[in-house]
From TrEMBL, chains A, B:
Residues 8-68 form the HTH tetR-type domain. InterPro entries: DNA-bd_HTH_TetR-type_CS, Homeodomain-like_sf, HTH-type_TetR-like_transc_reg, HTH_TetR, Tet_transcr_reg_TetR-rel_C_sf. This is Gamma-butyrolactone-binding protein. Keywords: DNA-binding, Transcription, Transcription regulation. Residues 31-50 bind DNA.
Length: 203, 203
């Protein structure tokens, strides 16, 4: 293996190990010593690639944004109505939060390091907002619905999904009744058609 | 002031200072030194009341649960339909998350210390669940709606509100378009009546 290739692999091994640690223990709860142990790499090699924890966290957040953008770029385009595309986008985000420690970690670090310009939501929030605006203009939404409420709802939902996905990941034996993705799909079904029973039931 | 009363006040000053620090920086990001400085109390006095950070965090979480239960006990009883009571309960939780650092801190610590038996949601989740079940049995909900989806939705919403309330609190000048409570009220309006426009618009 060429020296450069080896360096790239070592660097990525460190980023993946750091992502798992940040995901589990947060920024302040993660020590570079533990990242080294988890990665099976010496502290000398770590500091060759990243001079401080800050840099490592920045890289995890950047990769989390990148993975998210790439996944969203891979979603089917244009043909479906805007509302369905907005919902599918949030389902894809939920899938990423469940499956990708780097993404889950980027979401957590965004909250813990709000001063860094690397918010995970920057990778998707504008897309969601545009799709809800489009759905409204296309008449898909009831005229009393503010698209901004649905954008806020999506942000809140992702925050909850992130927590559930982390808890499920930490206690794989607890077996939740529904996966986060399935739970989210049901919630959107509820939101689309409303929860009220027949008129006159006090809903 | 009697010695005992003084001790009780000192203890509460420490808990309040710790709540603000845990809220802002999380469990691992909080040092007892900083708590002492914020409380204006010596480390000797702190360790007289709390032998370790763990104990202080336990006390913050217990008080967060207690404040929450007391606030919910103070809500008007029985007369309103169950669905409205469930929604009002979540609005009260949002108010607490906005106004009470101890509650916001308890919510954060619950996520960061899942092994402690002090989850903030234990103070309210069963109530919400029972009210949604009741609303379903009373025919207030559409028969296709699973009450469990609404309980999960409430949990996700509180996770998002917690984040927004913390961000608003940390950057009071940023002035969000809507407070977390108002945002939540609009979201429940949307959820009650659904978001779909007239049939045939592809919703």
């Amino acid at each position: 293996m060429a020296r450069q290739e080896r360096a790239v692999r070592t660097r990525q091994t460190l980023v993946d190990a750091a992502a798992s640690e940040f995901d589990r223990s947060g920024y302040h709860g993660t020590s570079l010593n533990r990242v080294c142990r988890a990665a099976g790499i010496t502290m000398g090699a770590l500091t060759f690639h990243f001079s401080a924890k800050d840099e490592l966290a920045d890289e995890v957040q950047s990769q989390g944004q990148l993975i998210t953008r790439q996944a969203l770029d891979g979603l089917p385009e244009r043909s479906a109505p805007a509302l369905h595309r907005a919902i599918d986008l949030t389902l894809e985000l939920a899938r990423l939060l469940e499956a990708e420690p780097v993404v889950r970690s980027a979401a957590r670090l965004s909250r813990e390091r709000p001063d860094r310009d690397l918010a995970w939501s920057a990778a998707w929030l504008t897309n969601v907002q545009d799709l809800f605006d489009q759905a409204y203009h296309d008449g898909q939404l009831h005229s009393a619905v503010r698209p901004a409420s649905l954008t806020a709802l999506s942000l809140y939902l992702m925050s909850g999904i992130e927590s559930q996905a982390r808890a499920d990941h930490e206690s794989p034996d607890a077996e939740p009744e529904l996966s986060a993705v399935e739970q989210l799909r049901q919630i959107w079904g509820v939101v689309q058609f409303g929860i009220c029973g027949p008129p006159g039931t006090g809903c």
